Amino acid sequence: MAKTGGIIVQSCPNCGSREVGRIGSDHYYCHDCCVEMSELEGGLVIHQVEEDGTLVQIDDWS
């Protein structure tokens, strides 16, 4: 379980995995589906990590 500001990340919101680790201040990474999460304005922003290391925001995730 990882905690961001007021948000507790118990599992990845993209794939449901519990393999979420902290990679920086308010930045987290899911080891199973390779997405990066960060807290922004009280919400969680999800980015897909591309092969070249760039981040692409995922607008529609469940």
How does the SSE layout of this entry go?
Elements: E1 2-4, E2 7-9, E3 20-24, E4 27-30, E5 35-40, E6 43-49, E7 55-57
Antiparallel strand pairs: 1-2, 3-4, 4-5, 5-6, 6-7
Strand order of the largest sheet: 3-4-5-6-7
Structural class: mainly beta
How many individual domains? 1
Low-confidence sequence ranges: none
Written as H for each helix and E for each strand, in order along the chain, the element string is EEEEEEE
Continuous helix count: 0
Structure characterization notes:
This protein is an all-beta fold and 62 residues long. It has one domain (2-57). It contains no helices and seven strands. The chain has strands spanning 2-4, 7-9, 20-24, 27-30, 35-40, 43-49, 55-57. The strands form two sheets. The protein has a five-stranded antiparallel beta sheet with strand order 3-4-5-6-7, with no helix packed on it. Strands 1-2 form a two-stranded antiparallel ribbon. It starts with a strand and ends in a 5-residue tail after the last strand. The mean pLDDT is 83.
What labels would you give this structure?
about 60 residues, mainly beta, 5-stranded antiparallel β-sheet, two-stranded antiparallel sheet, 7 strands, globular
Task: Give a brief description.
The protein has 62 residues and is an all-beta fold. It has one domain (2-57).
